């Protein structure tokens, strides 16, 4: 156990770097905050360092493979990304999920920008029983603090695979698995497409949708009918409706 | 057209009151912000005053029934609830929806606390073709700025009725319309309940769910199965899945 009082300490500078995408990529580590998320990360076996306010009693099960640091308020201020921080953090190791797509249901994210949307989609994919999430280039970094908080821990449950979406579509097609792209034009209502025990479902950028070239590789195009006077659905809500529809065979 | 330069002007003080629930209730008016929402409010015929920065060209169609005020940055600062304000506001009149529940589909909100959730639920109910939203006591004020922004204008499309939920359930029952409550215990999967052309769907408080007494009046209890390791769904996502499921007969 080591105590760190100053925000200028060299170790704190290393932790601070984990608040940026660049720093996370360089070290293959990321920082999480709050008891609930740390509990989930401990279960996933990825916690390397625990960083807590002095008064905090670290549960024994948390310490097994992790170094423990206590910190002063000055350090909490520097690391906290939430307004009401509990002053409890952990440095975790990224576990690269196998890039092999087994037979199953996958959510594919094409250039999604909003961290809250992406995190909520990962959480919903987990709840719906999907087997993994494929994150294409141009989608917000899933190790961004806002994404992780919105996943509510599902980032640690579900394989999250970074790869070009064309590759993922190819890998699914080689196994005879259909890929469904969401689109407004040339699309059919999702309700007319039956649930499937294996599929790829592509959700596109909040404003532009799925990229046209990627859409051209899809076996079907699905849209969600809007019946009232609303112009559109919230992106995370739309994803939830589709995830639960296509997974509802069990 | 009147110009107001000082945030201390008496008219500005009246506008500021509309940022509080008390001020809104006293005047039966509320304040909205941003071009898109004002466009929708103009179409709904509820705009009484337009408040814009001096450089802004007010569309002719907006002015028909509204007084126009131009304001300086100091006033914008006082009224703006968003970080990147366009400096365009409108004072609107609350239109009390008829408390008569016609035959149709209604979303009932029981003590929902998060403004973003409530706004997104109203938006999704509109998109799914529901006929109205009944807001019970204890749910966040739907004229709260965050709620209105999350509805993306659906607050002006859809009847939003404030009444005790027991009354709403009675009114639906008198017409032979089933009411479905969401619950985790003693509930069946929503997928086993068929879509309906008329129903009441009750969504409960984010942490506590639907109040037990209210639940006891329901004809069915529905839950959304969680298949992966996620503990729960985001409340707005859960509502979206149910709204689209029960409305999918058309």
TrEMBL record, chains A, B:
Gene Ontology annotations of biological process type: methylation; RNA processing
A Gene Ontology cellular component where this protein is annotated is: cytoplasm
- Which spans of this chain does the record mark as coiled coil? none
Alphabetical list of SMART domains matching this protein:
SpoU_sub_bind
> Mind listing the UniProt keywords for this protein, alphabetically?
Methyltransferase, Transferase
Q: Which Gene3D superfamilies match?
A: 3.30.1330.30, 3.40.1280.10
Q: Name one GO molecular function term.
A: RNA methyltransferase activity
Q: Note the CDD domains from the entry.
A: SpoU-like_rRNA-MTase (cd18095)
Q: Where is the RNA 2-O ribose methyltransferase substrate binding domain?
A: 31-98
Question: Does Methyltransferase appear among the keywords?
Answer: yes
Q: List the InterPro entries hit by this protein, alphabetically.
A: Alpha/beta_knot_MTases, MRM3-like_sub_bind, Ribosomal_eL30-like_sf, rRNA_Methyltransferase, SpoU_MeTrfase, SpoU_subst-bd, tRNA_m1G_MTases_N
Taxonomy, superkingdom: Bacteria
Pfam families reported for this sequence:
MRM3-like_sub_bind, SpoU_methylase
Q: Which family is annotated?
A: Belongs to the class IV-like SAM-binding methyltransferase superfamily. RNA methyltransferase TrmH family.
Q: What is this protein called?
A: RNA methyltransferase
């Amino acid at each position: 156990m080591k105590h760190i009082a100053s925000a200028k300490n060299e170790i704190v500078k290393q932790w601070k770097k984990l608040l940026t995408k660049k720093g996370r990529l360089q070290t293959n580590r990321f920082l999480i905050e709050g008891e609930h998320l740390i509990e989930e990360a401990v279960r996933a076996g990825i916690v390397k360092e625990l960083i807590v306010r002095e008064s905090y009693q670290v549960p024994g099960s948390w310490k097994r493979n992790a170094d423990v640091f206590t910190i002063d308020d000055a350090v909490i201020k520097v690391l906290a990304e939430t307004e009401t921080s509990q002053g409890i953090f952990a440095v975790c190791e990224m576990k690269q999920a196998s890039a092999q797509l087994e037979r199953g249901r996958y959510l594919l994210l094409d250039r999604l920008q909003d961290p809250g949307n992406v995190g909520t989609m990962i959480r919903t994919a987990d709840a719906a029983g999907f087997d993994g999430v494929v994150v294409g280039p141009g989608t917000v970094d899933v190790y961004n603090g806002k994404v992780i908080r919105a996943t509510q821990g599902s980032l640690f449950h579900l394989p999250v695979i970074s790869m070009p979406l064309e590759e993922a579509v190819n890998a699914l097609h080689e196994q005879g698995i259909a890929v469904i792209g969401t689109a407004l034009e040339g699309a059919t209502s999702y309700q007319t497409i039956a649930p499937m025990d294996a599929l790829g479902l592509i959700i596109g950028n909040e404003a532009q949708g799925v990229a046209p070239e990627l859409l051209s590789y899809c076996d079907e195009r699905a849209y969600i009918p809007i019946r009232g006077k609303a112009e559109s659905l919230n992106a995370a809500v739309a994803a939830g409706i589709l995830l639960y529809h296509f997974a509802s065979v069990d």
